[in-house]
């Protein structure tokens, strides 16, 4: 039988390898927040002539209106996304007219968002609070649902640890994408993250359920082997569900197209894959790690504990 | 057991029929008594285009915002927006100090902002004896922003008034005269700025009435006007919309009067609020505005529709090829799931947004997962040498706890996200939670009732001998 748990520290190392570079980037370069979370204006326009002007010229128009720090991104031959600090009402009304006049073209607004600085932060912190509360509720529920077997509380905590792992991987990927590809963390990212969180928790419980069932059937075998056995038994289901859900999402989003949605698709793809991955390689191994109290052997103080496991 | 399956099948077919009826393209909608539902798919602004504005009470952050005032402000905002002629405008309170306004299809931010930010204008209008119906939009001779204050003695109108003030009885000749010379322009006697206090009280009989007093400098004017126009209608007009048409019963000489006429406590309060707050009870400022052009909205909608259909086809094929007979049964269940969910969205109704679609996709995933869990278990039991008759109930019993617990955890998450989303006006979180919650509930139903019933009946009909071929073992 496949021995997944025996190699658990390799998988932990792999996860750290995915998470740490992104975290360092976040710490040193900051989070690439979009206007949804830090405030500002985003104007997406298309030019009816089919050819967008040079970004520098657009920035020139903005500067003349007294708007500094405008950034222009071309997302198609005739489409530009212009990000700038928060505009007052009076300025906002002039931008499009000024562009029409300057470029002698009909400019169509595709999207025009203007977010006050305090609002965005609030949305982010409220969403984080909601997720934290939901995580707590999930721990309580799992503890209740697994009350029939020893250490029910651990299952809830391990599920949430693995969920946090998934969130960290997604954040790490976004930080790297933010640095190299100019991705930004916007409200669509928040949607993707919520999807990942929902999927992750659900997937953990399916794997844990098998452990719960086996605990009452296979009483005599060591916990580690029991967990490994449960993982292997649910492997086919994990693969199929992953294939279906992710394939569905991926196709859906590949067809969406557009620069902003492409980011969304990649984040979902990574996040949902992690949802399945972490059930097998993080959540379940952490149960074993907890059972064996392996941290006692981590710093060389008590080699015996490790050897026993 | 067998009989129960047939009953279930009957119920499922009934549900199917209802679902198909609801989703018929030319469905007339449900109109029973006060219950009216048009049964259209409601799309959020991100899918159909439009403008969303977030208004915040412009008060110091530590100052509590009176919730009643916020509600009044919301009503006033909605009234003002309706004047724009945009359909389905909605204003909702978000949290304790904000209002969210949605204007589907609107793209001109400046026009909308100008309309909703202007100060409400309350006018008392001379309406002669044949006032327009309440709710009518009227034109008055009071020009906003002009320096001339309207007075009862406005020159071009007073001769007409003089001609009709002789008696309380209606003079049929006089009123049409006004109508002929100024077909639609009504004369403004005074504006809300001249009101001092407005209250609600009851008379000796216990009937509700709205009382008001005027500022001292206006009392004189008003006394003169009302003495001359007893018996005529003094219309109350808010933002050019007629909200009440009381008639003058006696001269109001001391700057105090009341409006009566079949008020309930509620309607009296409502009128008092409108008189008092022609302008907003609390200052509001725009803190966020979002415009989604119609092309971007329909683009997103079209792509998600195509994506959904392609994804569904792939899933149906995969299930059929991998799980064979049960897979085909699951496909039927998934189609029913989609139909039921779509019907629910129309019935409740649920406004579909992009985050909502993400929630929908995730719940479809969990609907599939429930089926996969059951079928994997079924294969396991068959491989372990059980007969089909034994394996089916066992597979169900063993798969159920994992389906139940994983979905309940998702439901708990949804409830918390929904609650947070509504309480703090985080519409993304809310939109996501609603569709996921509904989806998970429907998926539990389809996996447990529909897949099981269909599969049991299908096995009864087919009586498969070659397990490898029918179940893909």
Question: What do these coordinates show?
Answer:
- The complex is a heterodimer of chains A (309) and B (473).
- Chain A is of the alpha+beta class and 309 residues long.
- Chain A has two domains: 5-34 and 119-308, Multidrug efflux transporter AcrB transmembrane fold, CATH 1.20.1640.10; 40-114, 2-Layer Sandwich (Alpha-Beta Plaits).
- Helices cover 70% and strands 9% of the residues of chain A.
- Chain A is built from ten helices and four strands.
- Chain A has a four-stranded antiparallel sheet.
- In chain A, strand 2 and strand 3 form a beta hairpin.
- The longest helix of chain A is centred in the C-terminal third of the chain and has 34 residues, at 223-256.
- The model of chain A is unreliable at 304-309 (pLDDT under 50).
- The model of chain B is unreliable at 144-183 (pLDDT under 50).
- Chain B has 13 helices and 16 strands.
- By secondary structure, chain B is an alpha+beta fold.
- Chain B is 53% helix and 18% strand.
- In chain B, the strands form five sheets. Chain B has a five-stranded mixed sheet, with helices on one face. In chain B, strands 5-6-4-15 form a four-stranded antiparallel sheet.
- In chain B, helix 9 (294-347) packs across helix 10, helix 10 runs antiparallel to helix 11 (388-424) and helix 10 (354-383) runs parallel beside helix 12.
- Chain B has three domains: 2-39 and 293-471, Up-down Bundle (Multidrug efflux transporter AcrB transmembrane fold), CATH 1.20.1640.10; 50-118 and 285-289, Alpha-Beta Plaits (2-Layer Sandwich), CATH 3.30.70; 122-279, Gyrase A, domain 2, CATH 3.30.1360.
- Strand 4 (107-115) of chain A pairs antiparallel with strand 15 (284-292) of chain B.
Entry summary:
The complex is a heterodimer of chains A (about 300) and B (about 475). In chain A, about 70% of the residues lie in helices and about 10% in strands. Chain A has about 300 residues and is of the alpha+beta class.
């Amino acid at each position: 039988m496949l021995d997944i748990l025996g190699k658990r520290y390799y998988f932990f190392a792999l996860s750290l390898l995915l998470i740490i570079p992104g975290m360092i980037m976040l710490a040193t370069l900051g989070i690439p927040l979009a206007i949804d979370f830090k405030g500002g204006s985003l104007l997406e326009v298309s030019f009816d002539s089919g050819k967008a002007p040079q970004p520098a010229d657009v920035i020139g128009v903005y500067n003349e209106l007294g708007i500094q720090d405008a950034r222009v991104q071309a997302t198609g031959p005739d489409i530009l996304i212009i990000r700038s600090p928060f505009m007052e009402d009076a300025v906002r009304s002039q931008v499009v007219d000024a562009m029409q006049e300057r470029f002698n073209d009909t400019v169509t607004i595709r999207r025009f968002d203007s977010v006050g600085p305090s609002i965005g932060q609030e949305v982010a912190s409220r969403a984080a609070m909601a997720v934290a509360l939901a995580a707590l509720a999930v721990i309580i529920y799992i503890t209740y649902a697994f009350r029939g077997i020893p250490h029910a509380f651990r299952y809830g905590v391990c599920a949430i640890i693995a969920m946090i792992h998934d969130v960290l991987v997604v954040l790490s990927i976004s930080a790297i994408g933010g640095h190299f590809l100019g991705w930004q963390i916007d409200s669509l990212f928040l949607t993707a993250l919520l999807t990942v969180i929902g999927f992750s928790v659900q997937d953990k419980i399916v794997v844990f359920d098998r452990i719960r069932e086996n605990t009452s059937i296979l009483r005599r075998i060591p916990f580690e082997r029991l967990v490994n056995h449960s993982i292997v038994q649910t492997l086919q289901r994990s693969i199929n569900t992953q294939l279906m859900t992710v394939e569905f999402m991926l196709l859906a989003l590949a067809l969406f197209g557009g620069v902003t949605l492409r980011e969304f698709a990649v984040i979902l793809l990574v996040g949902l894959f992690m949802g399945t991955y972490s059930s097998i390689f993080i959540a379940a191994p952490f149960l074993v790690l907890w059972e064996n109290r392996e941290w006692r052997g981590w710093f060389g103080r008590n080699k015996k504990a490790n050897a026993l496991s | 057991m067998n009989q129960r399956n047939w009953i279930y099948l009957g119920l499922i077919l009934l549900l199917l029929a209802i679902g198909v009826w609801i989703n018929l393209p030319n469905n007339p909608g449900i109109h029973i008594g006060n219950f009216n539902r048009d049964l259209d798919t409601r799309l959020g602004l991100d899918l159909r285009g439009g403008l969303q504005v977030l208004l915040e009470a412009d008060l110091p952050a530590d100052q509590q915002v009176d919730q009643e005032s916020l509600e009044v402000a919301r009503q006033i905002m909605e009234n003002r927006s309706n004047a724009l002629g945009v359909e389905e405008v909605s204003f909702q309170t978000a949290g304790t100090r904000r209002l969210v306004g949605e204007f589907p299809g609107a793209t001109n931010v400046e026009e909308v902002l100008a309309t909703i930010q202007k100060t409400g204008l309350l006018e008392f209008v001379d309406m002669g004896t044949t006032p327009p119906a309440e709710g009518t939009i009227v034109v008055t001779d009071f020009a906003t922003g002009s320096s001339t204050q309207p007075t009862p003695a406005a020159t071009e109108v007073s001769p007409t008034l003089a001609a009709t003030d002789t008696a309380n009885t209606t003079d049929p000749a006089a009123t049409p005269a006004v109508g002929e010379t100024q077909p639609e322009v009504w004369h403004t006697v005074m504006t809300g700025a001249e009101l001092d206090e407005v209250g609600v009280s009851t008379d000796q009989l216990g009937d509700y009435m709205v009382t008001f007093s005027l500022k001292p400098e206006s009392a004189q004017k008003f006394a003169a006007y009302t003495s001359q126009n007893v018996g005529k209608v003094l219309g109350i007009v808010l933002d050019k919309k007629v909200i009440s048409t009381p008639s003058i019963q006696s001269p109001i000489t001391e700057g105090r009067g009341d409006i009566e006429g079949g008020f309930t406590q509620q309607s009296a309060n409502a009128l008092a609020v409108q008189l008092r707050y022609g302008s907003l009870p609390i200052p509001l400022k725009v803190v966020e505005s979002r415009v989604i052009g119609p092309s971007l909205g329909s683009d997103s909608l079209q792509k998600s529709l195509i994506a959904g259909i392609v994804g569904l086809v792939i899933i149906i094929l995969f299930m059929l090829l991998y799980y064979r007979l049960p897979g085909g049964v699951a496909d039927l269940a998934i189609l029913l799931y989609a139909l039921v969910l779509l019907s629910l969205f129309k019935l409740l109704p649920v406004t579909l947004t992009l985050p909502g679609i993400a929630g929908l996709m995730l719940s479809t995933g969990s609907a599939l997962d429930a089926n996969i869990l059951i079928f994997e278990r079924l294969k396991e039991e068959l491989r372990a040498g059980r007969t089909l008759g034994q394996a089916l109930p066992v597979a169900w019993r063993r798969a159920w706890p994992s389906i139940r617990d994983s979905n309940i955890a998702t439901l708990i998450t949804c409830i918390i996200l929904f609650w947070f989303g509504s309480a703090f006006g985080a519409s993304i979180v809310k939109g996501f939670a609603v569709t996921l919650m509904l989806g998970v509930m429907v998926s539990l139903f389809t996996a447990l009732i529909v897949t099981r019933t269909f599969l049991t009946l299908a096995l009864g009909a087919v009586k498969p001998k070659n397990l490898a071929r029918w179940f893909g073992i």
